[in-house]
Protein: CASP-like protein
Amino acid sequence: MKSVPGSVGTGVSFALRLGQAIFSSSSLFFMSSGAGFYSYTAFCFLVTIMGLVIPWSFTLALIDGYSILTKRPIHHQGILQVVVLGDLVLWILTLAAASSSAGVLDLLIGADDVSFCPPRLCGKYQISAVMAFLSWFLSMASSLSNLCLLSSW
Amino acid sequence: MKSVPGSVGTGVSFALRLGQAIFSSSSLFFMSSGAGFYSYTAFCFLVTIMGLVIPWSFTLALIDGYSILTKRPIHHQGILQVVVLGDLVLWILTLAAASSSAGVLDLLIGADDVSFCPPRLCGKYQISAVMAFLSWFLSMASSLSNLCLLSSW
Structure:
């Protein structure tokens, strides 16, 4: 079995998971700090998904950190399958949530009647959507690395 | 190299590609038949992506059909890499377009002022979004099959 940078138990994977946790936490923070987000289904969906991505990324960052510190690489096929499946599901959901939020934001900002979205509030929502896209991008790197490792089994 | 059902050059792949072409054409038809879709960025994005998915799926359906009729399986690594890459890019874009359209539709339908989206028009947009999701679902099956075949090389 070849070693794949970014796969579970490596330093690159630890950095990617930390990045995912930070970006998804920022997305959740900026979205929930903008009062009234719960009026929009897309924003509620984003908050829900970010609420799932944060513990997932954080747990996997801990596992990676433990693996690096004890110098015991995780080469268990069952664990890798669960990680790949979880990553894939959350990856799809994150992209769907970030895209729908971006679509709604575009409509809110482009509308003639902007009373529903003052510039300051919309700015927070925009930062939240960007952070969700960044989290999704890092998640793609992790998913592909783990998929490569699994397929080389 | 093992044979994977759904990978390029097989009967299952031909059926999947035809399904993708039909669903994406329906999505494009229902969206463009609803006058005024160009006022919404998410709907324009969906139309653009469906305009890319249709020729891609149709071309691959033709290649699959040719491969089945001549009984010459396509086992060229270069072609498979291009198909996997194209599938992955279009898969991501289709999900993003369908999700953003669904988000915008939810906002339009749920809004108090429904003058921007009469029920008949919104119905067409909804069917278009559903068709795009179905096309994305079939595209996922094709992508995974081809990825499995490529990884078994």
About this structure: Helices of chain A lie at 11-33, 41-69, 77-110, 119-151. Chain A has one domain: 11-69+79-151. Chain A has a mean pLDDT of 87.
